[in-house]
Amino acid sequence: MESFKLESLRFFQGKRGKRIYQQRYLLLMSIPFAAWCFAFMYLPLFGWIMAFQNFRLMGRVTLRSFWEAEWIGLANFRELFADERFYTALRNTLGMSFLGITIGFVVPIIFALLINEMRVGLFKRFVQTVSYMPHFISWVVAAGMITFMLATTGPLNSVLIAVGLIDRPIAFLSTGEMFWGIITGSEIWKSTGWNAIIFLAAISGIDLQLYEAAEADGAGRFKKMWHVTLPGISNVIIVILIMNIGWLMNVGFERQMLLGNPAIREWAEVLDVYILRFGIGTGRFSYGTAIGIFRSVVSIMLLLAANGIARKTGRGGVI
Fold it and tell me: Per DSSP, which regions of the chain are E strands?
């Protein structure tokens, strides 16, 4: 007991111990979040063992029900990789995610740059407020608005016919080749203003003397944006890009289910919908878990690869 007291005293007298003592209140405040993170982020990983079982949900789920389930090894994964519908869902997931990263990621940056260049304060605040509003609309309401706009008798077709660009209405939501673009456009409309907040905050931290020096050298607005603003927020852009790459396999399912229909299922079904339909929907929880493991492993690999490339090129990283 005495030796334990001596070791504890030596620890708190050291640099690390003093730092912990100085930040003791912050550490105490972080305990509830750490407990929540463990309970909802790490503890559910125990359920991954279902992917190697023929698990059936019968009554109350207990630890005993996991161990008594039939072990089938990699059978669920073999069935997964032999299913053509899985590869269709994977193609749709990667296609929508790629469009979201290439277009949906660039648009908020451009929008933040343009807002930063506005000189009329009242108009600037008005544009920011209007751009934030779609973020707070639920996807159920947003899908209804988009469906109304893109209907064959909707405003978009009416305008296109009125200006002579088309002769007859286009069935946007029944044309599979257009669905990826519709999903990307709806996401841009809904999240551009909200995502631009991060870049606007990063821009506000740039030293104003850099702009003054660039202006003294004869740089105009666009040159200052290119040579001062963008390099000033490049680290933030890289970090957010890496995080988005980590979420490449998690495109969601709300938009696809609300805007999709059986006529374009080949273009609308993503991995999340595939899990819901052929895993949870049919009671095959083991099969759904196997798909989730595949998606998580690929996401981790993409995140580590993107982070490694960023570090090797001297652009920083997340981890």
Answer: 53-54, 70-71
Q: How many residues comprise the chain? A: 319
Helix and strand totals (H; E) in the chain:
19, 2
Look up the domain containing 53 and give its range. Answer: 2-73
Alpha helices, DSSP H, located in 117-246 = 121-132, 139-150, 155-162, 176-204, 208-216, 221-224, 230-232, 234-246
Evaluate whether 116 touches 203 at the Cβ level (below 8 Å).
Answer: yes
By the 8 A CB rule, do 52 and 76 touch?
A: yes
- DSSP class of residue 315 equals S
Asked if the model's pLDDT at residue 296 lies above 60, the reply is yes
Q: Which tokens belong to 279?
A: 């895993």
Considering the entire predicted model, what is its pTM?
0.83
Answer yes or no: do 139 and 54 share one domain.
no
- Residues linked to residue 4 through DSSP beta bridges, in sequence order: none
| CATH, residue 240 | 1.10.3720.10
83 shares a domain with 60? no
CA pair distance 33, 37, nearest whole angstrom: 6
3-class DSSP state for residue 70?
A: strand
Q: Rounded to a whole number, what is the largest CA-CA distance in the chain?
A: 91
Beta carbons within 8 Å of 78's beta carbon, 6+ residues apart = none
Q: What pLDDT digit, counting tens, does each position of 187-242 carry? A: 999 999 999 999 998 998 888 888 888 888 888 888 888 889 998 898 888 888 88
82, 56: one domain: no
